[in-house]
Amino acid sequence: MPFVQIYRGCKIALKSIISQIYCLIMSLIRPVLGRGITRSFKGLTHKRMPVIAGHKLLYRCNLECKMCPFWRREDSDLLSLEDEVRMLESLKKAGVLFMGFEGGEPLLRNDIGQILDESYSRFHTSMVSNGWLLQKKVHEIKDNLDFLFVSLDGIGKVHDRLRGVSGSYDHAVAGIKEASRYLNMAISSTITAENLDQAADLVNLAQKLGIQINFQIAFDYTTAEKESPDSSRLKAVIENLLSMKMNKAPIMNSKEYFESILNSWYHGISWECKPWLTINVDPTGKIVMPCYVLNEYSGSFTVWDTDILKLWDSYPWGEFASCNKCALACYLEPSLFSWTKPSQVKSRIIDNITSFIQRQIA
Ligand SMILES: C[S@@+](CC[C@H](N)C(=O)[O-])C[C@H]1O[C@@H](n2cnc3c(N)ncnc32)[C@H](O)[C@@H]1O
Ligand code: SF4
Ligand code: SF4
């Protein structure tokens, strides 16, 4: 091949990599730069403010996971698109920077593209899906998401058995392959009694698919099957995941996530839970207090009728600081994060950027 053509080819590839790195960096600093400044001013007068919001768009689901209570519930009136926007505006006013959508299965909402569009213009926006509809619907969501999680709880039949519908694994993997062409992604995996021995295989699968993986431990909700893992077997799995993480496996959880579980559940040294960092809104627009685990997703205050910062200032959060009952990543990771700990900044921010760049070059 003539030198000029090789040179042009390299130049185009380099340009595309640089523009994608720019998009990623902007997607990370967008919420920090603009809204972060406003938030900092509010922080002068409020001791506690939510940073992350989680919103269940609906309870309905196309799967029937054993450990999950949500698909078993009836949906009453879901929020209209206008009410979703009212909710987003209230959360923005309260200082939220990161917005995460889930359910039920969020891709079952026909207006999912519009909802994400409204969120993306206000927040760093992520979503978690079971992936069944992903191949079909990726084009409705790909331009309005900063990050997508797809749940995988085992390889092949192990996943299908836990998820209650055969074909779930194949649909999720096909969805990941398609969506990872457009989006920053990770597998979201819930460790249960039935998939403990597959955690390492799932890490290897993530590596093969060129994405990351994030783990959490199943919590025994009162209205779902009891699937939380056996304590002594779990310890070995957590230790192994920590060691894989330290050996550069593409595991998103911070090393502190695994260490805190080992310290608290096996050595009696608790972490300080800060459920106030995460605000959760149920499918009818109600805020779930203090966290959706203790309250099993029953909301009390309609988000746009509530002065969130006033509620946050007066709520007895201290009562929950040493709870340590669950290791749901959406509560535990923010509770542990600190800008003053270089290893956390590295693993949560810098490593994510590096792995993205490596994926683009590979
Ligand atoms: C409730 S689902 C909603 C989004 C979507 N339907 C999905 O499965 O990804 C969100 C996450 O919660 C996890 N989950 C379900 N039941 C759980 C439990 N009992 N304890 C901890 N996580 C659970 C799922 O595995 C999934 O990764
Ligand atoms: S975990 Fe997700 S996919 Fe499974 S039943 Fe619950 S909402 Fe549906
Ligand atoms: S540890 Fe307790 S207070 Fe914290 S999120 Fe879990 S259940 Fe809620």
Number of domains: 1
Q: State the secondary-structure class.
A: alpha/beta
State the CATH superfamily name. Aldolase class I
Bound molecules: S-adenosylmethionine, iron/sulfur cluster
**How far is the N terminus from the C terminus?**
22 Å
Sheet with the most strands, sense and barrel status = 9 strands, mixed
| CATH-assigned fold name | TIM Barrel
Detailed description of the structure:
By secondary structure, the chain is α/β, with parallel strands linked by helices. The protein has a single domain, classed as TIM Barrel (Alpha-Beta Barrel). Helices cover 46% and strands 12% of the residues. It has a nine-stranded mixed β-sheet with strand order 6-5-4-3-2-1-7-8-9, with helices on both faces. Strand 7 (278-281) and strand 8 (286-288) form a beta hairpin. Bound molecules: S-adenosylmethionine and iron/sulfur cluster (2 copies). Residues 61, 65, 67-68, 70, 102-103, 105, 128-130, 151, 188, 190, 216, 218-219, 221, 224, 328 line the site of S-adenosylmethionine.
